[in-house]
Amino acid sequence: MKLTAHRGVSSLAPENTLAAFRKAADMGCEWIEIDVQLSLDKVPVVIHDQSVKRCTNGDGIVAQMNLASLQSLDAGSWFSEAFNDERIPTFEQTLLLANELNLKVNIEIKLYPGDDIALLCEKIKEVIVQLNIDTTQLLFSSFNLQALKQIHALLPQVRRGLLCKEIPDNSLDLLLEIDAFSMHCHYQFLTAQQTAKIKQAGYEIYCYTVNDPEKVKDYWQWGVDMMITDKPQAYVTI
Q1: Cα(232)–Cα(149) distance, integer angstroms
Q2: Is 126 exposed, middle or buried (0-12, 13-18, 19+ CB in 10 A)?
Q3: Buried/exposed 6-18: b ≥16 CB within 10 Å, e otherwise
Q4: What is the pLDDT of residue 163?
Q5: 71-90 pLDDT, tens per residue?
């Protein structure tokens, strides 16, 4: 049974923080999923939302704040007082910790209207190359096909997964277009027939965000390869 801790173990620690990633390692997770976007000064940082408001004590748009401003925010106390010292991590800090903890990383290339796709992909590449990260430990994912094409050109050796809510009718054409490794979809919209089609074409298939293992107990038999979950601890008992 293969699991990815969604934004780390985000049910037990503030999402997309080093604390959440450490929880994943402590629980024996093989993979974590993170979201990467650029700060105003073009540093890749790990945060999901376009705004810092939901997951910090601040307010503002990530792309309009420099790294110093972003890392001055408290990214943990909204979740629990136990995490008062947590900060928004950089992509570099996250990869270094993942390497230390032997975690594989699903890197979602997170884009919002007006973001520079090429620049974000270039900055992601720079960090990976600078740190000399083993690319077999990484997987890129995105809802944005152009981002996956761009990162393919920059780092062709890193696997790519196409994110979608529902698997489109032309899914095999899209996967071929980006030389994909996997298809990632919302579990509620997946069927056994779609799974068979994707698997027969040679791709892996991952489901997000599955917090109740009972809801997907048949999916493993269908051939689903990975569940992306906020609650990897829920799978321990099944």
Answers
A1: 31
A2: middle
A3: bbbbbbbbbbbbb
A4: 98
A5: 999 999 999 999 999 999 99
Q: What end-to-end distance do the CA atoms of the chain give, in Å?
A: 10
What are the C-alpha distances in Å from 160 to residues 154, 182, 214, 233?
12, 7, 28, 27
Residue 208 near residue 186, CB atoms below 8 Å: yes
Q: What are the catalytic residues?
A: 6, 48
- Checking if the pLDDT of 183 tops 70, the result is yes
Judge whether 152 and 162 are in contact, CB under 8 Å: no
Strand partners, 204: 182
Secondary structure of residue 29 in the 3-state scheme: coil
- Taking the mean position of all CA atoms in its chain, how far away is CA 94? 12
